Amino acid sequence: MPVANQRTILAIALVLLTMLSRAAAEQSDLARTPPMGWGSWNHFACQVSDAVIRAQTDAMVSSGMKAVGFTAALGSGSFSSVAT
Hints:
Elements: H1 3-27, E1 36-39, H2 41-44, H3 50-62, E2 70-74
Parallel strand pairs: 1-2
C-alpha cells in the first residue's frame, strides 16, 4: 500500500477516534463534579442523631448547596457506644 494511502487512512482513523471520544465525553455524567456532601463526624462526633441530620440537610437545601451539587449527607456515629 502506498504511503499516501496509509497516511490518509491514519488521518481518517484519527478524526473518527477524536469524534467518538468527544461524543462519549459529552454523554457521560461521570466526574462532572466531585462527590459533594456533608458529614456529621467533624462537628458532632458521637452526638449525631436523626434530628441533627435532618436539620443539616434542610440547611443544605435552604442555603442553595443542593442546587450546586451537594447531594450527600453522611451520618457517622461512634463505634465506642456499641454494646459488645
